[in-house]
Amino acid sequence: MNEETTKDAAQEGVQQPENGASTASENESRTGNNAPQLTAENVSEMIQAALKDFGQQQEAAKSEAEKLAGMNEQQRAEYQRDSYRDELEKLRAQLALGEMQKTARSILAQQNIHLPDALLVTLVAADAETTKTNVDAFVALYTQAVEDGVKARLKGAPPKTGKTTGARMTKEQIFAIKNDDERLKAIQTNMDLFD
Questions:
Q1: Can you list the positions of beta strands (E) in the chain?
Q2: How much is the pTM?
């Protein structure tokens, strides 16, 4: 295969096997792997998305610079102060959420419940009251689910105790049996008499 047709095929997203090599679909069917393949089309889409994001960032930076250029010193200082204030508020909110996560984790740890961060984040809210309510509700649901699971596993026939359901025998009746095998069997079924 020459270099020009390889470039054309790559631009069109066509995969061409070389020297008896198998195609991607053949490899996928042989290995059973359904992972996404890097085709020219997929790579092109990823590049376009990255360029779009970069372009948006550049536009935002350009509009920010134009806005600052049109301001006098006092307006520029006020604008920067406001942007710093907004950033500070965001950081405080993140810090508060981190503290709420620590609190929620400690409450759960007291109940011997240990959750991964991905699940813990769903319980945490901006205020302490809502976080406490969420954690308490989760603890109640979790313990109930664990109890239900344990009960489900323990369901079944109770273990046999060796007691007969008919008339009970006494020690004297058991010792009165003449046949040794039958007497041993009666002793085994009435073991509680010989404790």
A1: none
A2: 0.43
